[in-house]
Amino acid sequence: MEFDLKITGGTVIxxxxxxxxxxxxxxxxxxxxxxxxxxxxxRETLDAAGKVVAPGFVDIHTHYDAQIMWDRMxxxxxxHGVTTVVLGNCxxxxxPTRKAHRPLIVRTLEKVEGMSVAALESGLGEDWGxxxxxxxxxxxxxxxxxxxxxxxxxxxxxxxxxMGETATERPAEADExxxxxxxxxxxxxxxxxxxxxxxxxxxxxxxGRPVPSRAAPFDELRELVGVIPEVGHGMxxxxxxxxxxxxxxxxxxxxxxxxxSWTALLAGSAFGKSSHQEQLARSRDMLQRGLPVFPQVSxxxxxxxxxxxxxxxxxxxxxxxxxxxxxxxxxxxxxxxPAFRAAFRDRFDNAWPALAQAFNxxxxxxxxxxxxxxxxxxxxxxxxxxxxxxxxxxxLALATGLEARFRMPVANHDxxxxxxxxxxxxxxxxxxxAGAHASQLCDACQATYLLGHWVxxxxxxxxxxxxxxxxxxxxDVFGIRDRGRLAKGMAADIVVFDxxxxxxxxxxxxxxxxxxxxxxxxEAEGVDAVIVNGVVLRRAGRDVIAPDHxxxxxxxxxxxxx
Length: 562
Description:
Blueprint: E1 3-12, E2 21-28, E3 31-36, E4 42-47, E5 52-55, E6 57-59, E7 82-87, H1 102-113, H2 117-124, H3 133-143, E8 148-154, H4 155-163, H5 174-190, E9 194-198, H6 218-225, H7 227-231, E10 235-239, H8 246-256, E11 260-263, H9 276-288, E12 293-297, E13 302-306, H10 321-325, H11 328-336, H12 338-349, H13 353-360, E14 363-366, E15 376-377, H14 378-385, H15 389-399, E16 405-411, H16 415-423, E17 428-429, H17 446-457, H18 463-470, H19 472-477, E18 494-497, E19 503-513, E20 517-525, E21 527-532, E22 535-539, E23 542-543, E24 556-557, E25 560-561
Parallel strand pairs: 1-4, 1-5, 6-7, 7-8, 8-9, 9-10, 10-11, 11-12, 12-17
Antiparallel strand pairs: 1-2, 2-3, 5-18, 13-16, 14-15, 14-16, 18-21, 19-20, 21-22, 22-23, 24-25
Helix pairs in contact: 4-5, 5-6, 12-15, 14-15, 17-18
């Protein structure tokens, strides 16, 4: 047979932004070897008549660092046509990690990424099977995975590994920086895509402490990423915050020459006082001057469901600092305290415009004590009852053992502003956060949402433009070199979908994580086939390879499969 797999009769959109065309694709040995019409015989033929044939989608902003250890299928990303993901974003990860620090890493992920401790402890087990970053990559490769994986080295586990618990409290000493530099170099040499960090005030870890990367002075970061030009490859991913804003991003770009992608340029951020238009103008200016700086943008409204037992979305506010450090009973006492309530009411009533708008749009998502108020705005129910919205929210939380859920829009709820960001050529699509905030949001479906909502329904983007945004663009920014395009010699990562029906289904809450932990998921609609390295992984919305069988995904060391 001439081909292992042949895809026939489809409309090819190759990921470059070029116009679509009719054609067949021949695959052999996991790579595309022919594109055209009337191709020869194949062991397996996939009929794509009436469908679009595109490169597999590339998701550069995920947090599957722990989940990959128990879920080789990396659900739910492949459901939505994603064939490549990047781990280690925002400076988080689980390697390098000393055995004594594992509980601290787990508690940090619980706080900052909304992950379940029960799921993490049950899924990772007592023997993680690695300590160093190279051992972590080897472990991923040995276990096997359904889709392709690239990994960033995270600043937070790196600092904790070298400095211990004091990593959350102080600058590193000269010898500690030297040790961290050596570990960054080791990680880049063994296959890391780059280095990731965060200064976001809302990134609060165990015991309410700032995550370790937030305690690092800018000069420390400069020393660490200074390894990149020495090694000759690697990019930087960062989440902005005090001490690491666009002035510092520009300095790093000049000093290292590395591509930098920062999280995230969102419309109307409730917790950022600066205008996204100002950030956009500054980003355009840097790009025009040849600096490789690429803000990440999301196509979805950023809505967080939260409980007051772990009020992640509010923990960036200083008045919640005691809450972050408190245990369950301590939180309950704080929420009953008249002084705390008065301070919270004052913040609510005197918030800047974007935050005030977000507060006024909070929805009571789930309340076992009063089902009749579910899916209603907090301010409306509070007005009916003659109480302040803050007091109502805290009373509902206390009445349900802090289990009541609230949904708050954080950014991107004005679609007219989001459209402008999506259309800007300097942006890169990111911030799906797949694998994190599992009980709070689900944006791992952003690829099918983009195609269904922004292309078909809103007609704001052409299909060619959207597919480029999902494939070659993120691959190029993150240094993923053999994926993101349909061309001879490229890896055969392919998604086949119906442009008339593709989309993201409604969110639903399920309990399928280890330890019976719950998460939000979204089914994909209109995705006919997902192919990874020439192997059909999914057909008609179902896996065709069992999780315990050999899987086709590859670890992308230095941005490509070995």
